[in-house]
Amino acid sequence: MEDRKDILKTITRYAQSGEWPKVIKEYEKLLAMDPNDINIYNSIGEAYSKVGENRKAFEYFKKVLEDYQSKGNASKIMFLYKKISKLDPKKFDLDGKALHEKITKIVAAITLSDAQDHDNALPALRDAEKIDKNNADIQIRIGETCEKKDLIGEAAEAYTKAIRLLVEKGKKDEAIIIAKKVLVLDKENTDAMAMVADDLISRGNKEKAEEIFKDLLITLAEKEKIAEGRDIAKRAMDLNVEYGKQFYAYFLFKENKTDEAKKILEGVESLSVEEKVLLGKIYFKGCEYDKAKSIMMSLDPSIVNENIEILEVIGDSMLKMREYKHAAEYYLKALKILKANGSFDEAIIMANKVMNVETENVELHEIMAEIYMKKGMKVKIIDEYTKLAALYDKHGRSEDSAKIKQVLAKLKMI
Question: According to CATH, what is the number of the domain 270-359?
Fold first, then answer.
């Protein structure tokens, strides 16, 4: 059996003398010895192109292309595209002709880009982008071209797409380089900020990175950019950044992926206040009302009694568990905070929750009378004072009842 080194020597000799059919036969021997060597497919494709066997060359190149694409080898893909574009597609099948046409357009766009022909390169690159949406090199070239044409917003957008593609392919170093370019154009670009924070961690500056991630995740949560927030929170979590798990669970919760969010938080040994609140909301959404109430009430009372959201979740959980009187107590606490903050419309909504479980609560109607007075809602004021007069009489508070009735009489005369 022939030795691999001997076959390669023979190939070199035949190639130097231009005997390409013999080169092909020798390469086929190597391919039989190692059917998975993609470099041999590439070499056979080149040899077939030398003898004008374009269709056969294309079939071998296509095998190489599939390998490069699966490995995300962008530089080699572009080099191969240029070789494929030079083939004559006349004898290709319909799929082959369509693929050849796409590749030719991409090569033309890259050629214009390399020539710095920005006016013609941009539309060509836009067409190439439609053909190959997952090509980071094309996005980078679009960004560079837009930047040269002072299309700053479009440049930042293209660079951001490139960052995402590079991150997906595990090309962190390349993504960081592009991220720094983006931040020159757009200082608040979230993808670029995340990459810079990632880079800071790798350089040992975790404290600064955590600050960036925290500010970034809060901003995304406030702007309700859920998908984007989820991806960046996942990256922060994987880097063991403080708040990473909390925000990842939060964005999953916002996407209604409650089981995934719950699993993450239940796996945390010591939950922060924010994580407990989030887990409580997750339990409530999953109809685990006893767990929701329990975890919320495990918080420090000073925190519970000052947080409208916590009070409402506890009240809602108690309502579901038919603990109506206790539910009313928590709703009433939330109502008082809303009134003190001047959030009268939200207070009215909360008051209706109290009303649903405890209709004859004197304090509720006193608060509502005050709110309607401040909102200048005369009909509602009369209604509340009428209810209060009856409740005062019922509870033996005759003096209070008399005062209310006097005010009522004056209101009805106005």
Answer: 1.25.40.10
